[in-house]
Amino acid sequence: MKELRFNGQVAIITGAARGIGFAHAKLLGSRGAKIVINDIAGAKEAVEKLKEMGIEAVADENNSVEIQGAKNIIDTAVNTFGKLDILINNAGVNKALVIDEESEDKFDFIMKVNAYGTRNMCKAAYEYMKNQGYGRIINTTSNAAMYGAGNLFAYSASKGAVYAMTRSLALSAEPYGIKVNAIAPAAATVMAMQESGFTVTDPEILKQTERAMPTEAISPIVAILASNECPVTGKIFETCAGRVNEIFVGTTMGYYDPTFTTETYFEHLDDIRSREDYVVVDDMMSANAIMEVAIKRQYSKQK
Ligand SMILES: NC(=O)c1ccc[n+]([C@@H]2O[C@H](COP(=O)([O-])OP(=O)(O)OC[C@H]3O[C@@H](n4cnc5c(N)ncnc54)[C@H](O)[C@@H]3O)[C@@H](O)[C@H]2O)c1
Questions:
Q1: What is the pTM of this model?
Q2: CATH of 10-247, one of 3.30.470.20, 3.40.50.740, 3.40.50.720, 3.30.420.310
Q3: What is the mean pLDDT of residues 243-269?
Q4: Known catalytic membership, residue 155
Q5: What pLDDT is stored for residue 238 in this prediction?
Q6: Which of 71, 74, 109, 189 to mutate to test the pocket of ligand 1 (most atoms within 8 A of CB)?
Q7: Quick count: other Cβ atoms within 10 Å of Cβ 287?
Q8: What is the pLDDT of residues 159-208, one digit of tens each?
Q9: Tally of CB atoms within 10 A around 252
Q10: Among 191, 219, 236, which residue has the most ligand 1 atoms within 8 Å of its CB, making it the best to mutate?
């Protein structure tokens, strides 16, 4: 198979001074992309490292938590490299907390960086990419949001917002040649080992975890989603330690009762929840169509 290349393309990667974002920068940069490393700490050092690898890159220290910060990051790409093709929203913060341990300030902080930061970057990039008639946006959600994680309440909430933004933005962006997808990664980074409730301290086990879950394992699927050959939009890919899988939303066919009585639904709770004939739902319109099919199907059975 031919190699996916990014020659002449420009990518912004937020939170890319270290961890998963830096791995994305290395992969896209090594395949010809010009990179904007956005981070509130360490962006310049990261750019020096990329330059040593022969990658063209520029540092940006704006904060996407504010809409003006996000606009400035887009300007850095356009003013330095002439355009913007790819936005990877990777910046994120975490703190392992159950809801009753969490202060209002901590909740706000996590929501602001993860949800508002992603929203602001999507908005600023969307405006630019819409005019251009082309773009690729890759957001970073989390399996904590997709599956639930009791000790990561604020984090899950913020990444759930990222998931929802990805699904809805993908629909409005498609007519303009913009594809929007998300990843739910897991890798041995500062965040994963120090801020997510990871309790292992044995140095040997820590080393093994780093070897088994490298940041470099996350970037190949991101490169596909960033490429002009990306065949999908609105999709969520989970990736860790070399495995990539798609997370999707499905619905059961449900149970139809035109008299909508509590007792009938209680009696048919197993039917409501039955996974038999479940359907994967792509968007709200197709969910409505599925509802119609389900009602008609049961109605004809009852007649
Ligand atoms: N590592 C995992 O297992 C894991 C799991 C699920 C999701 N994620 C997500 O992957 C992304 C990368 O995480 P990581 O594990 O590499 O974390 P990391 O802590 O190693 O790196 C995060 C980077 O984001 C930067 N950052 C924080 N706030 C910022 C802001 N407002 N603007 C710009 N940069 C900012 C930090 O300075 C840091 O360099 C995050 O969105 C994270 O939530 C990671």
A1: 0.96
A2: 3.40.50.720
A3: 95
A4: yes
A5: 98
A6: 189
A7: 13
A8: 999 999 999 999 999 999 999 999 999 999 888 888 777 777 888 888 89
A9: 15
A10: 191
**Rounded to the nearest whole angstrom, what is the distance from the C-alpha of residue 191 to the centroid of ligand 1?**
7
Task: Show contacts of 104-113: CB within 8 Å, 24+ apart.
Answer: 106/154, 107/154, 107/157, 110/154, 110/155, 110/157, 110/158, 111/154, 111/157, 111/158, 111/161, 112/65, 113/65, 113/158
Instruction: Give 79-121 pLDDT, tens digit per residue.
Output: 999 999 999 999 999 988 899 998 999 999 999 999 999 999 9
User: How many of the other CB atoms lie within 10 Å of CB of 251?
Assistant: 14
Q: Which residues line ligand 1 (CB under 6 A)?
A: 14-15, 17-21, 38-41, 63-65, 90-94, 113, 117, 140, 142, 185-187, 189-192
The segment(s) of the chain belonging to CATH 3.40.50.720 are 10-247
